[in-house]
UniProtKB/TrEMBL annotation:
Pfam family membership, one: MPAB_Lcp_cat
Matching PANTHER family: BLR2777 PROTEIN (PTHR36151), ER-BOUND OXYGENASE MPAB_MPAB'_RUBBER OXYGENASE CATALYTIC DOMAIN-CONTAINING PROTEIN (PTHR36151:SF3)
Protein name, UniProt field: ER-bound oxygenase mpaB/mpaB'/Rubber oxygenase catalytic domain-containing protein
Top-level taxon: Bacteria
Naturally occurring in which organism (per UniProt): Streptomyces griseoviridis
Domain ER-bound oxygenase mpaB/mpaB'/Rubber oxygenase catalytic as annotated: residue spans: 24-256
GO molecular function: oxidoreductase activity
Record-linked InterPro entries: MPAB/Lcp_cat_dom (IPR018713)
Length: 290
């Protein structure tokens, strides 16, 4: 099934979104990495959702692998052809069907593919992408932001959600977060994720790199969280204007690196898409209109 924003042409299959979509353009931005870390912090505040992650994986041993697999899934479903995107979604759904978690307080056993949990993970993820990109200066109008969220219903379908039950606008997303807030808490599992993101284990030889790179990424990601998240984690909220300035400076610096160099980093989803569809398919923010 090809998304309505992709149009097959002489070059090949545009996939589920296609070069005319906001998703295609926005997901090529380098600030997506900071947005992805923000999403991890936010997702961890849902006790049932984060429990499903930690009870089914060794988060501390494989956190980087998990982050890279998520990035690969997003890249495949955004820039891959329709077959590759649908296969990636089927693989995720198959894994989720096999996994469950146990509430330590009640003994309740539940599946990690409960719609409410999948919806939280989806909304925290796409909401983080949208928030960080816009706050760091990426040119997205309000109308384009709403288009992005509507397009992401396709991504929600891939992980097993009914698209009709997923927010498709900024107003809908805000209403969703307001409704789910009473369910959020920084329990033991969230604290474990928080501790890891603040002090990830690395080889001693990489300590300077962690200090220079990871600390900046983590501070920006954490600082961009909503105020209620800072309150739940129990640490003072950074000054919002200072966070915005840092996000904009970082976004400006990263976007100054030529895209042709950035896109050569593995797994090269965008490069492969351009080979399939032609150079006119390259993600370009100026393509985003109202």
């Amino acid at each position: 099934m090809t998304g309505t924003t992709g149009t097959a042409d002489a070059w090949g299959d545009p996939g589920l979104f296609g070069p005319g979509s906001v998703t295609w353009q926005a997901h090529g931005d380098p600030m997506m990495w900071i947005a992805g870390v923000r999403a991890l912090w936010l997702q961890a505040l849902h006790p049932r959702a984060v429990r499903g992650v930690l009870q089914n994986s060794d988060f501390r041993e494989d956190a980087w692998g998990r982050l890279l697999r998520t990035a690969d899934f997003v890249g495949t479903t955004t820039y891959g052809d329709t077959t590759a995107a649908e296969r990636a979604g089927a693989r995720v759904r198959r894994i989720h069907r096999l996994l469950g978690a146990t509430d330590p307080d009640t003994g309740e056993r539940y599946g990690v593919d409960e719609p409410a949990l999948l919806r939280w993970v989806h909304c925290a993820e796409v909401g983080s992408y949208l928030h960080v990109l816009r706050r760091s200066g990426y040119p997205l109008t309000d109308a384009a932001a709403d288009r992005y969220l509507a397009e992401q219903r396709t991504g929600a379908r891939l992980v097993g959600l009914d698209p009709a039950g997923v927010p498709a606008s900024r107003a809908g997303l805000s209403a969703y977060f307001e409704a789910v807030r009473p369910e959020l808490a920084a329990g033991p599992e969230a604290r474990e994720v928080d501790d890891f993101l603040r002090r990830p284990p690395v080889h001693p030889l990489l300590t300077p790199a962690r200090r220079l790179l990871w600390t900046r990424v983590a501070n920006l990601a954490y600082g961009s969280l909503p105020p209620y998240a800072h309150e739940l984690y129990g640490r003072p909220a950074p000054e919002p204007e200072a966070v915005t300035r840092r996000l904009r400076l970082t976004g400006t610096a990263l976007r100054a690196v030529p895209a042709r160099l950035r896109w050569q980093l593995p797994p090269k989803h965008i490069v492969r898409a351009m080979r399939r569809l032609g150079p006119g398919a390259r993600p370009t923010p100026c393509k985003l209109g109202a």
